[in-house]
Design goal:
Elements (H helix, E strand, L loop, with lengths): L4 E10 L5 H8 L2 E2 L8 H6 L6 E8 L10 E8 L7 H8 L4 E7 L6 H13 L2 E7 L9 H15 L10 E3 L18 H11 L12 E10 L3 E10 L1 E3 L3 E4 L4 E4 L2 E4 L2 E3 L1 E3 L3 E6 L10 E4 L5 E12 L12 E6 L2 E12 L19 E4 L10 H6 L12 E13 L4 E5 L12 E11 L4 H4 L6 E15 L4 E5 L15 E4 L4 E8 L4 E5 L6 H16 L5 H13 L3 E9 L11
Parallel strand pairs: 1-4, 1-5, 5-6, 6-7, 21-25
Antiparallel strand pairs: 2-3, 3-4, 8-9, 8-17, 9-16, 10-15, 11-12, 13-14, 13-16, 18-22, 18-24, 19-20, 19-23, 20-21, 20-22, 23-24, 25-26, 25-30, 26-29, 27-28, 27-30, 28-29
Helix pairs in contact: 9-10
Length: 575
């Protein structure tokens, strides 16, 4: 019987030139066809340009179960250059454990921070590796390592990785040009730490097969090999797999895991799948799956959270770079929340309820987005009322192929890469995709997002035995007042009224007061009317004076209603 092999995917992330590829090389027992910057462009530029994969095989640690077996740590070497953040995000979504590589002579840098943010979104456990300790003066080396360790502990204090292991190494003593005879330092200690942090990730062979392909190449006489990580389900020799972006289905001819032929692979495994009669140039990276199990979408509803390190507000109608799996496309967002009365309601995770009403938001609601004026108005005395969950409608400029409930990350990748700022803006879960190109007509009307409208006008005078008042300044002259007839209004003096119709041609209107005006209100309005009429037509000074008195205590008319954003009939609704 073959020995049990447990695969754990370990991401190697960090700032450019922190020594990630050298570390992956020092740790690995086997390299894949996409390991250690084998691509000619990477060698020419001396930096990692794509995901690299290699593996370390070691004895199964005791916490992962009794009996003989091996632990296979698949190392995912992610590029560190700021412009390759899309690739880093794609890599982060397939890892179980993360190594954050820090140049010990420089500490946390901009991309180290972005990698930490990505890790917090996509990963459960982390090990910090302080690399290049050989560059520290020997006499001060230990104290410099201790100082940097304390700094990193402080940095991680308020993250999910607080208290994670920190290991000091020199993956390539003397740098890239040093002879191979120079032995790495601290690698055996790091392997022991990685073994201690390894855990049994959730692996489920059932369900549809889905694999994130990161490299595609041909082997003469064999066919085309697609290498990647299985995200869900399993695959066997002879299975049919679909490349949904190209609407092409192929049969699996052979499979390998790190140069070892296999007949079966499941969720979490790193595998090369060989098919025939397929041009590798057609698929640099993407998804392959069980035929007809994935769909291409043009828009989506996601639940989301703002990334706390992103500076500035997340505005509705703004464009973001939206990363879904290995794809990054431009997309426009519209934020919405529960109705204010339901802000504290527990929301069922990963489910979107189309029966409920949702409140349109001009921007994502966060502590820093709600102004102090709004707090004063709402008498919160500085306490900001925020919903437990918020959502966004994403409309993609180019369609994407992805599974439901996949991770979505929104970024501002056009920000200057030299600016010391986090470009990652929000992350979320894709709850509902829209496959129809005409989704604005066929799908969006089902989405009950409304805008709350609040209009104010003034009572001009009383008419008809206290049961009718004439109002102004609520509508423009050209407004069709007929569509507002029958709507309820409230006077600042407490009376409820109903809009009865227009009055004249200047935008004035009649309000019926079913319960009649209060005596105090009637006196206030009658006094104001008398003052105006006493002024006479030519007496401008007195008219101005009476207007001032009038405006000092006008009776305000409030009209509150809502309109659904995607209602084609633009109906006005009052609760």
């Amino acid at each position: 019987m073959a020995a049990r092999v447990l695969n754990v995917n370990v991401g190697v992330l960090g700032h450019i030139d922190s020594g990630k590829t050298a570390l992956a090389r020092a740790l690995s027992t086997t390299g894949s066809t996409a390991a250690f910057d084998r691509a000619p462009q990477s060698r020419a530029r001396g930096i990692t340009l794509d995901l690299g994969f290699s593996c370390l095989r070691t004895a199964l640690p005791p916490q992962l179960g009794p009996g003989p077996g091996e632990l296979q740590l698949t190392l995912v070497d992610c590029p560190g250059h700021a412009s390759l953040i899309r690739t880093i995000i794609g890599g982060a979504q397939i890892i179980d454990l993360m190594m954050l590589v820090i140049d010990v002579t420089k500490g946390m840098q901009t991309q180290s921070a972005e990698c930490l943010v990505i890790g917090q979104i996509a990963c459960q456990k982390m090990v910090v590796v302080l690399n290049k300790i050989d560059l520290l003066p020997e006499g001060k080396r230990q104290s410099a390592i201790e100082k940097m360790t304390k700094k990193m502990q402080k940095t991680l204090e308020n993250t999910k990785f607080s208290g994670c292991p920190i290991v000091a190494v020199a993956a390539k003593p003397g740098g890239p040009e040093a002879p191979e005879s120079e032995n790495p330092q601290g690698i055996s200690e790091l392997i022991e730490v990685l073994k201690s942090q390894a855990y049994l990730p959730s692996r489920d062979p059932s369900g549809h097969f889905l694999m994130a392909v990161d490299h595609c190449f041909s082997i003469k006489g064999q066919g085309t090999v697609m290498t990647g990580t299985i995200l869900s389900g399993s695959v066997s020799l002879g299975d049919n797999v679909e490349i949904p972006a190209l609407k092409v289905t192929k049969k699996v001819k052979s499979m390998q895991m790190f140069h070892t032929p296999v007949t079966y692979a499941m969720q979490g495994d790193r595998v090369g799948v060989c098919v025939t009669q397929f041009d590798p140039k057609l698929l640099e990276r993407g998804l392959i799956c069980t035929p007809d199990s994935l769909h291409t979408i043009h828009a989506a509803i996601i639940s989301l959270k703002k990334i706390q390190y992103f500076r500035g507000a997340l505005q509705t109608k703004a464009k973001f770079h939206i990363t879904v799996g290995h794809e990054t496309v431009m997309g426009r967002v519209m934020f919405f929340s529960p109705a204010p009365a339901n802000f504290n309601e527990e929301i069922q995770e990963n489910v979107f309820d189309f029966e409920k009403d949702y409140l349109y938001q001009e921007q994502y609601l966060s502590k820093d987005s709600v102004s102090s004026e709004e707090n004063k108005e709402n008498n919160h005395a500085g306490e900001v009322q925020l919903p437990k969950q918020q959502w966004a409608l994403l409309e993609f400029e180019k369609s994407v192929t992805c599974p439901k409930l996949c991770l979505v990350i929104g970024s501002k990748l056009d920000t200057d890469i030299h600016a010391n700022t986090c470009r990652l803006a929000f992350h979320g879960v894709l709850l509902q995709g829209m496959e129809d190109k005409n989704y604005t007509e066929t799908f969006l009307p089902k989405l009950k997002v409304y805008k709350q409208k609040h209009k104010e006008g003034q009572v001009e005078r009383v008419s008809c035995l206290s049961m009718l008042v004439i109002g102004r300044s609520l509508f423009k002259k050209e407004t069709n007042i007929q569509i507002f007839v029958g709507l309820k209004v409230k006077l600042s003096t407490g009376e409820d009224g109903i809009i009865d119709g227009g009055f004249g041609q200047s935008g004035k209107f009649k309000i019926r007061i079913p319960g009649g005006l209060k005596p105090d209100t009637k006196m206030l309005l009658t006094t104001a009317s008398k003052k105006k009429s006493k002024g006479g037509k030519g007496d401008v000074t007195k008219e101005d004076e009476s207007s001032k008195n009038d405006s000092a205590q006008p009776v305000i008319i409030s009209l509150i209603f809502k309109r659904y954003v995607f209602d084609t009939q633009k109906k006005i609704i009052q609760s």
